[in-house]
Each structure stands twice: as structure tokens, then as C-alpha cells.
Amino acid sequence: MNITQIILGLIFILGGVISLFVIPYIKTHMTVEQITILTGIAQTVVYAAEKIFGAKMGTDKLAYALKVAKDLLAKKGLSFDEDVVRAAIEAQVQQLTIEKTTAETPAVTVSVPEK
């Protein structure tokens, strides 16, 4: 079995867990504006961490993303439980991984013989 298929499977399982448990929790305890701000900040810090640290150093990237996200949220006057911030960051990491995988997967072309 291809390692890419295993990784994608794990990503989809993680996405399911986030969808089933974390997102409903967030929606019941946060306003739409707070969710929008958290999601935007999570996306920004994930892309920044990826640019700064590159493809390796997952633990360092997560620590950086958590710290910067908390700082940016504090500047907006928002405070969230670390698990909520981490879940938002992990969701953005999943999205970035899917985007990268999709971009790296070559298009399949089918040639039909002429009659």
C-alpha cells in the first residue's frame, strides 16, 4: 500500500473526529465572529509556520503556531482554551496537507484511440 494513501486516510479520520466533536463544541460556545477570527488566525499562523520552518520540525511549528495564535487572539481581546486553538490549527494543517497533496497529484489523462 502506498504511504500517501495511509496518510490521506489518517487525515480524513482526523477530520472526522474534528467534525464530530470539536466543531460542535466550538459552535455552541463561540459567536460567528469569534469563529471567523479564530479560523483566520489559525490559517495565517499555519502558513507562516510552514514558510518559516519548512516541511520538517512539526513540534516546533506547532509550538510557534500556538504562541503566535494566542498573541494575535489576545490583541483582538479574545481568549480561548488551548485545546480549541490547537484544534483550529490542526484543522488548518489538515487543509494545507490536502491542498499540497492535491497540487502534487498529477492529473490522469486518458487517450481514446481514433476510429
State Rg: 18 Å
Largest sheet: none
H/I helix tally: 4
* Beta content: under 5%
Element-level helix/strand string: HHHH
Provide mean pLDDT, rounded: 79
Low-confidence stretches: none
* Alpha-beta content class: mainly alpha
Supply the number of structural domains.
Answer: 1
Distance between the termini: 37 Å
The proportion of residues forming helix, as a percent range, comes to over 70%
What is the molecular shape? globular
**Strand elements, count:** 0
3D architecture notes:
By secondary structure, the protein is an all-alpha fold. It has one domain. The chain has four helices and no strands. It has helices at residues 3-29, 32-53, 58-75, 82-104. Helix 2 (32-53) packs across helix 3 and helix 3 crosses helix 4. The mean pLDDT is 79.
Question: Top keywords for this entry?
Answer:
globular; 115 residues; mainly alpha
Brief summary of the model shown:
78% of the residues lie in helices and 0% in strands. The chain has 115 residues and is mainly α. The protein has one domain (3-89).
Topology:
Layout: H1 3-29, H2 32-53, H3 58-75, H4 82-104
